[in-house]
Amino acid sequence: MKQIVLIFFIFLVLVSCGPYQKALKSDDPNVKVSMIDTLMKKEKYSKSIDLFEQIIPLYRGTDSAAPMAIKYAKALYGDRRYLSSAYQFERFVTSHPLDNNVEEAIFLGAKSYYHMSPVYSKDQSETNTALVKLQDYINAYPEGKYNEEANVLVAELREKLDRKAYEIAKQYHHRGGIYIKAAIAGFENFIIDHPGSNYLDDAHYYLFESQYIYAVNSFENLIPERLALAKKYYNNFARRFPNSEYKDDAQEIMAEIEKFESENLSN
Question: Residues in domain Outer membrane lipoprotein BamD-like (predicted)?
Fold first, then answer.
């Protein structure tokens, strides 16, 4: 038992006297910078950040301020501290607008916000911010080094917003009853606001079905007018998505509408 305790004590002593600990305790900034470079190459970002925070103030106003600032921001990004990295990249751009690393800083700042974007079912404030920041980069550097990746990220974030809006309308549809009007409004707005969405097929079908449900549950004198609008939605759906997976279901509903109209016209 005593041997185990002794070995553990020796281990602690060796760790406390290691190069990183020496750099952390050193009064020489050059020692800290050298250790930062070593840690960054090994992607040990958390330890490098501890050292950065000791020396960043020492380099303000010097020729080393910009290189130190961009490395610090990258360390935060590498350690997934995205809120802090976004702030530091933006601060770098503001403080060093003519530096050669500005393009990269703008992109990585925007990408920091991208990483903060949550799953589609949660509040999408960060997603909207990320889209603005990425679009700012694309606008500033239309032929930029990171332009292709930025466009991929923008497409991914837009798809997330598409799904968020679509799922909200679909929830109203599935709840039915008093929520069916909200479903109709939701799908109408979705089709207008998300013209390139992958969910347009679904949205057009559920808009048609929602309008049909709304019509048949209306007062008798309102049914014909509301079914006529449902037919309009069907025609839009059938024209735009002739091979839709919802084709058979839509045709069944149309058959019910035509049956209703036939019975009422004959009376």
Answer: 40-182
